[in-house]
Amino acid sequence: MTPTLRVLWFVPPPVAVVAEGLAMVAEVTLLSRRNTSSDEQFEALASGETDAVVTAIDNVMDWNLRGGPQDFRVVAQLERTTPLTVVGQRDRTSLEDLRGATILVDAPRNGFIVALRAMLADADVGPEAYVLEPVGGVKERHDAIVSGRGHATLLGPPFDAMAIAAGLARLATVQGRYPAFPGQGLVVSSAALERMRPALSAWLRNLENARQSMGIAPEAARQALTLAGFPAPAVDAMLGATPASLVPDRAGIELLIEQRRRAGLPGADTTYEGLVESSLLGR
């Protein structure tokens, strides 16, 4: 009997799109849906409503401090990096211009915003100089900033390119400041890991095959992403973010820990070993 795996994500990771496009999903029945916030992901994992989520790895450091299982682990890294652009209204042209700004976020103390908070600190823009307004995931932030709400936000493909095409300004990129910034991870609870090991292992085999095919046959991967509806600039960014391995990158995760420490947020006392469980990958 084919195992079933329930997964939540903001946008399907490229390796998953390619795996589906190249019919690499026969070993597992994947029940996936889009979520609107990292809090929704946390609640679904904690309640057992879902088996796994694709999310910013930093989220795990915050989730493990909340009431609930406190046993969330990163079992794979599905992108080399998540290309992230700080976009702003037309009157904002630099990070320094975010003094006095309202910045739209998913959550104020976890996820990609931690990288932006560190970037602002490096630009001598302290946390007292701006307001963080939660509005939801990347699609929700895109829709809000394009409609004129807030002064700036952080977006990834394809929403960053869409926002700039709509006339918003590109202020900075996370990768320009932090080249080692890691992409999203596959996160489960330790209890779910044992219960769902056959399904997780099957899906990760599919994703590894897709990852390899993206390097060997990039045009087939490009076609799969294009047919899934992603615009050309987003496809280029996605292919460029293909991970060298599904094993979570130590340097990238240690960067996230340091960013959390730099932003003065709790959870920075963890370690790579405290966040990562790579046994599903044979490590």
Question: Quick gist of this model?
Answer:
It contains 13 helices and 10 strands. With 283 residues, the protein is α/β, with parallel strands linked by helices.
| CATH superfamily label of the largest domain | Periplasmic binding protein-like II
Helices and strands: which structural class?
alpha/beta
Q: What kind of sheet is the major sheet?
A: 5 strands, mixed
- Strand order across the largest sheet: 2-1-3-10-4
Give the CATH topology of the largest domain.
Answer: D-Maltodextrin-Binding Protein, domain 2
Query: Which CATH class of the largest domain applies here?
Result: Alpha Beta
Number of domains: 2
Task: Return Rg in Å.
Answer: 18 Å
Task: State the main characteristics.
alpha/beta; D-Maltodextrin-Binding Protein, domain 2; 5-stranded mixed sheet; 41% helix
Write structural notes for this entry.
With 283 residues, the protein is of the alpha/beta class. It has two domains: 4-81 and 182-281, Periplasmic binding protein-like II (D-Maltodextrin-Binding Protein, domain 2); 85-177, Periplasmic binding protein-like II (D-Maltodextrin-Binding Protein, domain 2, 3-Layer(aba) Sandwich). The chain is built from 13 helices and ten strands.
SSE inventory with pairings:
Blueprint (H helix, E strand, L loop, with lengths): L3 E6 L4 H8 L7 E6 L3 H10 L4 E4 L2 H6 L8 E6 L7 E4 L13 E4 L7 H10 L8 E4 L3 H9 L5 E4 L3 H7 L3 E5 H4 L7 E5 H6 L1 H20 L1 H10 L4 H9 L9 H13 L9 H4 L8
